[in-house]
Specification:
Blueprint: E1 2-7, E2 12-19, E3 22-30, H1 42-63, E4 73-79, H2 83-100, E5 104-108, H3 109-114, H4 116-120, E6 128-133, E7 138-145, E8 148-154, H5 160-170, H6 177-185, H7 210-223, H8 230-259, E9 263-267, H9 274-287, E10 290-292, H10 296-299, H11 303-316
């Protein structure tokens, strides 16, 4: 089975071809122009998707040495994300489905990240714990199969990636801030300053990063109201990063231990963070857990992960994937008051 997948949930336009659970191609076109605005501008993002999507789909097919006539099915991200961006990808995929009479699988973007570790490492066995951590989500999953998983914990407010980006902005670093903090912190002292590790000992798997963001703001206002000296900037970045990473590692490891599992997968944009990977790998090593973090191209918003889980749905679900009445849903997963 050969699947052509499209991902356009935010500011990356991506197309990939998946065959037998392997990526024959996985192309990503990033919209770097958003950096001058300090964040993604939704209307500009959707326009950029319109301009890029046709060419990147053609290129993904060419790289896989295939044509559209060789494709057995289509997949597209339908939720969550920026509504305009989702519509561009969804409508393009629906057009291909109608023209070539191909089934189309709508895929939740979070499910793509959730199983991207399985695409990376085919030896992964169920059940396992998965931490999906990005600019919009911080979620711990109990994953039992390709069609059964439970949410163990969510963020109550800011996602980890959001905390990175907002902190970076306060430090005067360019957008996107997460990679900037990671780079700056590599040769700095993560213990130079102490910032709160909210809910680290809460006894559950939920997160909160808004208090950290507030703490950094007050810290800067108190000690560096006239600007942060460059010699201290790296240590502040490293200390903030350490606070975020410590919470992510502690909660994730607790979940694996408490459920008696042996595998931990970390995915999503923030999983590219070098300090998170290092500390998570070390913690898993101490407990003799299997640790999987996708390669960097699979950490980004990418179509390969969408096509991968679409393949599993096509093989296991009895749905009518020729039904194109599905709509996109921009709503992110957030903690409800009763959770």
């Amino acid at each position: 089975m050969k699947i052509l997948a499209i991902e356009s949930s935010c500011d990356e336009t991506s197309a990939a071809v998946i065959a037998d659970s392997k990526a024959l191609s996985n192309l990503i076109s990033s919209q770097y122009f958003h950096s001058k605005f300090g964040g993604v501008v939704p209307e500009l993002a959707s326009r950029a998707h319109l301009e890029a999507i046709s060419e990147i789909v053609e290129d993904a097919l060419k790289l896989a040495n295939l044509t559209i006539n060789d494709i057995d099915a289509l997949a597209v991200t339908s939720a969550p994300g920026l509504v305009g961006s989702l519509i561009v990808g969804s409508n393009f995929a629906k057009g291909l489905s109608l023209k070539y009479n191909l089934p189309l699988v709508p895929v939740n973007h979070i499910e793509g990240h959730l199983y991207s570790g399985c695409l990376q490492d085919s030896s992964v066995k169920f059940p396992f714990i998965s931490l999906v951590v990005s600019g919009g989500h911080t979620i711990i999953f109990d994953v039992k199969s390709y069609n059964e998983y439970l949410i163990l914990g969510l963020t109550k407010d800011d996602a980890a990636g959001e905390a990175f980006d907002k902190t970076a902005k306060m430090l005067g670093l360019p957008y996107p801030g997460g990679p900037q903090i990671d780079k700056l912190a590599k040769n700095a002292n993560p213990s130079a300053y102490t910032f709160p590790r909210s809910m680290i000992n809460s006894g559950d798997y939920n997160f909160s990063f808004s208090g950290l963001k507030t703490s950094v703001r007050y810290f800067i206002a108190k000690y560096f109201s006239d600007g942060i000296p460059e010699v201290m900037l790296a240590n502040i970045a490293a200390s903030v990063q350490e606070a975020i990473v410590d919470v992510l590692v502690k909660k994730s490891i607790d979940a694996v231990v408490n459920l008696g599992y042996k595998t931990l997968i970390v995915s999503g944009g923030v999983s590219a963070n070098s300090r998170l990977r290092s500390k998570m790998r070390s913690a898993c090593g101490e407990h003799k857990f299997k640790f999987v973090a996708p390669e960097l191209s699979l950490c980004m918003d990418n179509a390969a992960m969408i096509g991968f889980i679409a393949e599993k749905k096509l093989l296991s679900d009895n749905q009518n994937f020729h039904d194109l009445t599905f709509t996109v849903n921009p709503t992110s997963i957030r903690l409800r008051k009763n959770q």
